[in-house]
Structures
1.
Amino acid sequence: MRKQLTKLNKLLFLSLIIGFTACETQEDQIVLHEVKFDSFGGSSVETQFIIPGDTVTKPTDPTLEDSEFMGWFKNNEPYNFGEPVTEEFTLVADWKDIYSPIINPDATPYITEVLDFSPAPGQFINYVSIEESKELIIGDNYQFISLGTYGGSVTFKFDHSIMNGEGDDIAIYGNPFEDNSEPGIVMVCQDLNHNGIADDDEPWYELAGSEYYKDETTHNYSITYYKPGPDDDQHLIKYKEKYGDVENEGEMDFNPVKPFHEHPMFPNDYVEDEITFTGTLLKSNTWFEDMGEWKYYHNPAYDWGYADNRGYENEGILRGADLFDISNAVDADGNKVELIAIDFVKVYTATTEIAHWLGERSPEIVKAADLSLLPTTDE
Ligand SMILES: [Ca+2]
Ligand SMILES: [Ca+2]
Ligand SMILES: [Ca+2]
Ligand SMILES: [Ca+2]
């Protein structure tokens, strides 16, 4: 909508700007372009009337609670305030959520809710349903869940945000013992919109452990497992894996564990006949000694930064716990990310190792805690 200069105040305004001293009838013919500002829920910004060919004066940035102003946009492009105005238009504000941690004065140290449990095939799967398994790691408990082979994961939260304090912040308890580490990669996520769930647009960050930057570590690894048909061997799981330009097909053979675990290895609870996992793959450091009749398997611990890995070295209340520092968070491209706190934690199996009769190298998760709420070990 173009506005004719009909009102006295606009006449005066225009006269001041362009120094017109001529009579009203000439001024009346100048058409100003109206530039509106849609602050998209933020504080309002005054409309400007621009002389054709002039530029818009960049207004003071609007404000919006829990949001950072990202700039003014015209037709979804950032607006250039140096551009001469030739028409009327509306500039729209763009906002980014500012994360604010959830503070709970009655916060408890341990997991309060398991949001997701997505096991991969494995020898300990199918003993308990997925729904029942979710209850096992809540609170200060001594039961555990096994995640299955590569990619199997559990996602949980607490009754508050875990702050990124000095040093380690999160304790994740497994059942590792010397020479039997089963590494789980840990990821974290912020509940930007405080709705209690990890939404698709809330990014996950890996807590980079000791192996993250090594050449032998594969990033953006993806594997799909296929459920055996009713007449097929339930201990042979076909898979397809992809990373970089590589695509492989194969079979994971769980038959050596069959004497101990006769039931099917593919999780019964999945509706689909296949399941895909994506993430970082650690090169397995499993090795064995040939004892003639059988092989003795060694699963050495990795240096640091994995669940069910090295917690046997800790004492007291931290016995069995691997410790994690939120400051090790990296984004999908491996860039360091500074997070003041986190709300969701995900742990997934880091290797595809199947150590013959010992079965898949899958982390067990017993419980997890906000380290800042645990009594210190010397108390
Ligand atoms: Ca920290
Ligand atoms: Ca959310
Ligand atoms: Ca295991
Ligand atoms: Ca274990």
2.
Amino acid sequence: MDFNPELNEDQIQIQQWVHDFAAEVVRPAAADWDEREETPWPIIKEAAEIGLYSWEFMAEAMMNDPTGLTMPVALEELFWGDAGIGLSIMGSGLAAAGIAASGTPEQVMEWVPQCYGSAENLMLGAFASSEPDAGSDVAAIRTRAVYEESTDEWVINGTKTWITNGGIADVHVVVAVVDPELGSRGHASFVIPPGNAGLSQGQKFQKHGIRASHTAEVVLTDCRIPGNCVLGGRDKLEERLARVREGKSGNAQAAMQTFESTRPAVGAQAVGIARAAYEYSLEYAKERRQFGRPIIQNQSIAFMLADMAMEIDAARALVWRGAWLGKHKKYRNAEGSMAKLKAGRVAVWATERAIQILGGYGYVRDYPVERWHRDAKIYDIFEGTEQIQQLVISRAISGMRIE
Ligand SMILES: Cc1cc2nc3c(=O)[nH]c(=O)nc-3n(C[C@H](O)[C@H](O)[C@H](O)COP(=O)(O)OP(=O)(O)OC[C@H]3O[C@@H](n4cnc5c(N)ncnc54)[C@H](O)[C@@H]3O)c2cc1C
């Protein structure tokens, strides 16, 4: 199957369906939830009622799509509506993806539905890797998981930080050290089931953007979970650790492919924000008159918009290509990282240009453009910073160890 940027019937329908939800429900609520800096439960509930917030939609979009494009298409539309609310709806997907990537089929069946619940009983998932001293440097994680033979339990201690849905989620997926001698290859992922007394929320962060998305510390204090909550199962973990101790591969290659293949989806979110700002500033420039003519009739404004249109299309093309290559396990030059890096930069740049086009109106909260600019910046930071994407790409293109 060759890469084909033409969407099929199903994808066009999904695109329209998510767009309508974003236009009618998400965007009108965006300014309010941004000000409140709270999880927009009523909107998540509405998303669950139409089936957008559900594990079934995630499974359908991820698994029954040979092109890889369904998810980026849906994400672009939702985040066009609002990125903070969009992340509140899609944040559980981080936990679901972590479970799907490392869990056994039984674990996937048990835990992924609990990351979503139902419209009547909403549940959330969180994926917790980052720590105060381990952001880009994942190998520096200190949260420790120790297996207790007598009770068949894992006991986990540590502090996670910057966690989307952290502390308010029902299911937390936590990355912890099981063998400190082995660096990042001595890590494993664990499911912390709902209502565990050893897990609590620490500080909730007040943020620059995506303020409708909850971000907080997660504190694990003698957090006891059943032995079968290690993702992939204990036997597989022991086999992997034994292989690594013998100096053999620990499946690092497969893990890298998984990381790469999630990046285009993050890029698609950034494209959605950039497109929102572009469309808004294009309309504004056609209507706003100064010196007796619409401001778009000045080349300096029109050319900004021309560049915005081009850069957004370029970012989307990289996102779709990255998603397709990820689906077909065909990465050669870290094309997933390229997509995320480009889309993040375009979102920050295009939203800043949009402020310029609106002038003073772009700078005040009565108009959405300043919010889009605040929201865009996170795409240079989370899921691998700008510099980490450059590192991954430069290592892939050179085949050399770049520091
Ligand atoms: C709103 C928000 C939500 C988040 N959600 C989650 C979540 O759900 N789960 C989760 O686990 N994490 C989450 N994160 C954490 C996020 O992934 C980290 O912030 C990110 O990985 C960067 O880590 P850091 O903040 O510690 O920065 P650092 O790693 O300390 O980086 C600081 C600066 O140094 C640069 N740098 C670091 N190392 C290198 C190097 N080797 N070469 C060149 N430059 C380098 C970085 O690019 C950056 O510019 C979230 C963060 C935020 C802000």
